[in-house]
Amino acid sequence: MFDFNEGVARTRAGTGTAWVSVCSAHPDVLRASLRLARDSGAQIIVEATSNQVNQFGGYTGLTPAQFIAEVQALADRLDCPRGLLAFGGDHLGPQAWKSEPPEAAMEKAEGMIRAFVQAGFSKVHLDCSEGCAGEPAQVGDALAAERAARLAAVAEAASPGTVSYVVGTEVPPPGGARNDAEEVTPTDPQAARRTLTITQAAFEALGLQDAWSRVHWLVVQPGLEFAPAHVHPFDRAQPDALSAALADRPGIAFEAHSTDYQAAPVFADLARRNFAVLKVGPALSFALREALYALSHVDGWLSGAPHLGLLMEELMLENPGVWQGHYHGTPEAQRLLRHFGYADRIRYLWAQPRAQQAVSAMNARLDAATPPLPLLAQYLTPAALTRARALQGTGLPLSQAVIDAYVEAALRPYIELKS
């Protein structure tokens, strides 16, 4: 079972261990993640955002209770012990309803928090940094802390003493930076200290001293990010200035967002710098897309079916709200980013009925065939092909083995930290 106190203490002791937080609701990503957790014995945190899952269903159509039930059912089918899993709510605040007046948005955020903690989410990121209708895009520390404490009070009333909290207002944009020219500036240690001081005062003003003792993580920007066509690498040579912000906070560690696409050695370095949770999401669904597009090339040679990318382009153009505002440049540049951008906005469309039908039909054709090894080698990376063949040896069909091989490759460096 998860012991967040112990895990934070291990990270703070310099052991170089950290939890990975899997931020995806896609069944294929979750299946590969749970299988890897089972085989390695590593604990993972499965997280859902307020846009993915909420009391109204979110874009997945799932309430918090339904999300947990589906993941646990998948874990049971894979013989993955439930004790290896914890559930987290990511970016929980009013932002899903930020187009509404502040009080209306906060009332819905309260209902969402209540639904999350009553469903069994034990880790909650209180993110009230974005403004609502009539407010600045980013509100100040004081208002963000006041709203975060208000939501914590709701969580404590709904499920007393069961929730551990993540706080912090220097939150990278969910899903990565919006353009490649954005600079990445690490959080100033004094700003981190100020955030903790202001947020603690807001908790205590509402009598939430016990809840504050379960604030275990602070979101800060360590100096890494990804944009649509660019990954800003973490500078491992830079001194660890941020840890000074935790000098008098032994029960709190950092949480890193947007760690996707970083080189594997970065993760251990972040753990040594007191980052106890490393979040990854788009890199996993990006790997899923790589696998599906590779399989579609193989399928095209065998069956003559059009490439899956043609259908996905149609769906992207039919749903411009998914990617506009994230991808910029010439029409041709945007077309390429719709499929291959690191922000992986295409992930929102795999649940569309036409996409699901096309993927299912492709997988069925491939699983009924025996593609020649040289054909597979033409489109799969050597490492993925080797791993997929090993997974086939355990009884997995070809399509599932290839998908899992790609997702595993993106997740394994995190798992190897062995929280």
Automatic annotation (TrEMBL):
Keywords: Kinase, Transferase
GO molecular function: kinase activity
Keyword Kinase appears in the UniProt entry: yes
Pathway: Carbohydrate metabolism
Any single GO BP term: carbohydrate metabolic process
Gene Ontology cellular-component annotations: plasma membrane
Alphabetized InterPro entries for the sequence: Aldolase_TIM (IPR013785), GatZ/KbaZ-like (IPR012062), GatZ_KbaZ_carbometab (IPR050303)
Protein name from the UniProt record: Tagatose-6-phosphate kinase
